[in-house]
């Protein structure tokens, strides 16, 4: 929980949240920050807020107190989108301040009524509309729908060049002493990027075409720094804009020279072949992510798959279908539109098989368009012949990935 002066009369109020599943679903090994911003012109505005969970609005009020800001003196609540991780505190705020004006998009107005019964004192803004807070702080608005809720806008302070981008350009990971990306070393940024890709792939990825449009729009603004609703502030805005643009492109593939290897096994028959395959892949000049299901969460698998051009799935047949957690993970990859990957499947069966049929059904139904090399399905344990066939197909897969990313 911290306050930072990030530009003239502009402050970041940040509250870290840990040990929860984001959206009730996604694990966050390093937590997440909920960032609000105060702009103190002649009038005071708060840009986005925090969730309404126990203790979180109170943390925000404590931060306002540190800044000597009485919530009653906040005139504008700029709600870039109504998703409750940023707007949940409105109920608590309304109890303290009865005379504020909400600034949001047309769609945001509908959602505010539905979620918080807020129907009055709302100023609707659209593309290029402005809000003058005095002292030179003229805020202009840009519509970036579906990044990540349909009502999303971004607010740009023309005085300081700060773009308050809401979920766009955000990341998982707590904010600690360093709040700017440029305070991180190359190594630290590489590590931090894992949280950014996790955030992007788990939360925003479905809307990748809209992300592309949003990035293009934001590039047109004279942005000096990007202050997102989650994660670090970017004083070199092109870096995170380029990264988000690349992540959006990965949806349709090809992505990076990486392979995500997802496997599951009941009695070790498939697992023996998995160990052989991993040993082989580790000798290749390609980044490998290995995940066992159901041990590793959907979110973790999705994070790796998002940046991988190649996918290997290894699992046995279970009641005429795939080993169930594999089916669930693949459905999720399909729904997030992890499309056009190079892929390989192998696994053990005991009766009459069936895993392949379900795999084909899921990839076809969800339009995933994965290009598979020949599958290797074996009865019981894997012998030398099976392992050699697996090696052959892995060689083919690696070549396909290398070709795709050239
Ligand atoms: C609960 C259960 C369901 C199974 N269902 C099928 C099936 O529908 N078709 C099939 O060919 N084998 C089926 N098998 C056999 C397994 O696919 C076989 O034992 C395989 O070797 C398991 O590989 P693993 O040790 O990697 O889990 C089933 C086994 C179990 C325990």
From TrEMBL:
Classification via InterPro entries: Flavodoxin/NO_synth (IPR008254), Flavoprotein-like_sf (IPR029039), Metallo-B-lactamas (IPR001279), ODP_dom (IPR045761), RibonucZ/Hydroxyglut_hydro (IPR036866), Rubredoxin-O_OxRdtase (IPR016440)
What are the alphabetically sorted keywords of the record? Hydrolase
Q: Which Gene3D superfamilies match?
A: 3.40.50.360, Ribonuclease Z/Hydroxyacylglutathione hydrolase-like (3.60.15.10)
Q: Which PROSITE patterns match?
A: FLAVODOXIN_LIKE
Q: Which GO molecular-function terms appear in the entry?
A: electron transfer activity; FMN binding; hydrolase activity; metal ion binding; oxidoreductase activity, acting on NAD(P)H
Family of the protein in this entry: In the N-terminal section; belongs to the zinc metallo-hydrolase group 3 family.
Q: What is this protein called?
A: MBL fold hydrolase
